[in-house]
TrEMBL record:
<protein>
    <recommendedName>
        <fullName>Prefoldin subunit 4</fullName>
    </recommendedName>
</protein>
<comment type="subunit">
    <text>Heterohexamer of two PFD-alpha type and four PFD-beta type subunits.</text>
</comment>
<feature type="coiled-coil region">
    <location>
        <begin position="28"/>
        <end position="119"/>
    </location>
</feature>
<dbReference type="GO" id="GO:0005737">
    <property type="term" value="C:cytoplasm"/>
</dbReference>
<dbReference type="InterPro" id="IPR002777">
    <property type="entry name" value="PFD_beta-like"/>
</dbReference>
<comment type="function">
    <text>Binds specifically to cytosolic chaperonin (c-CPN) and transfers target proteins to it. Binds to nascent polypeptide chain and promotes folding in an environment in which there are many competing pathways for nonnative proteins.</text>
</comment>
<dbReference type="Pfam" id="PF01920">
    <property type="entry name" value="Prefoldin_2"/>
</dbReference>
<dbReference type="GO" id="GO:0051082">
    <property type="term" value="F:unfolded protein binding"/>
</dbReference>
<dbReference type="InterPro" id="IPR009053">
    <property type="entry name" value="Prefoldin"/>
</dbReference>
<dbReference type="GO" id="GO:0016272">
    <property type="term" value="C:prefoldin complex"/>
</dbReference>
<comment type="similarity">
    <text>Belongs to the prefoldin subunit beta family.</text>
</comment>
<dbReference type="InterPro" id="IPR016661">
    <property type="entry name" value="PFDN4"/>
</dbReference>
<dbReference type="GO" id="GO:0006457">
    <property type="term" value="P:protein folding"/>
</dbReference>
<keyword id="KW-0143">Chaperone</keyword>
<keyword id="KW-0175">Coiled coil</keyword>
Length: 135
C-alpha cells in the first residue's frame, strides 16, 4: 500500500514563502481585483454606448420640427433634432474615449499580472494557483 505520491497533492509539503513573495502575491491579488472592477465599469460604459447608439437610431425616425427632450444631469431640456443628434454624437465620442482608457488600463494591469504570474509560478509551480475561476 505504499504510495509514491507522484502527481498527488501533499498537504504536509512545506513551501517557504518569503516576505517579498508574499508581497508579490498580495500585489497580484490587488491587481486582479482592479481588473475585475475595470471590467465591471467597462460593461456599464459599453451598455451606455449601446443606449446612445440606439437613441441615434430612434431619432432618425423623428420629425425635423419635433422638440426632443434631452437629459442633462437630472433635468430634461427640449432641443431641436439637430442639436440633440449633435449632443448624442458628443456623448458617444466622450463615452468611446472612456471605454478606450479603461481598456488600455486593463491591458496595462494584465501585463503587470502576467509578469508577477510568471515569477510566482516559476518559484512555486503547482503549489500556487493564480487562475481566475470565471475565465
Amino acid at each position: 500500500m505504499a504510495n509514491s505520491g507522484k502527481g498527488t497533492f501533499q498537504p504536509d509539503s512545506d513551501v517557504h514563502i518569503s516576505y517579498e513573495d508574499q508581497q508579490k502575491i498580495n500585489k497580484f491579488a490587488r491587481l486582479n481585483a482592479k481588473v475585475d472592477d475595470i471590467k465591471d465599469e467597462l460593461k456599464v460604459k459599453q451598455n451606455d454606448m449601446k443606449n446612445l447608439e440606439e437613441a441615434v437610431e430612434e431619432l432618425s425616425l423623428a420629425d425635423e420640427s419635433d422638440k426632443i427632450p434631452y437629459l442633462v444631469g437630472e433635468v430634461f431640456i427640449c432641443q431641436s433634432l439637430e442639436e440633440t443628434l449633435q449632443s448624442l454624437e458628443e456623448n458617444k465620442k466622450r463615452k468611446q474615449n472612456e471605454i478606450n482608457e479603461l481598456e488600455a488600463k486593463c491591458e496595462e494591469l494584465k501585463s503587470l499580472m502576467s509578469e508577477l504570474k510568471a515569477h510566482l509560478y516559476g518559484k512555486f509551480g503547482s503549489h500556487i494557483n493564480l487562475e481566475n475561476e470565471e475565465d
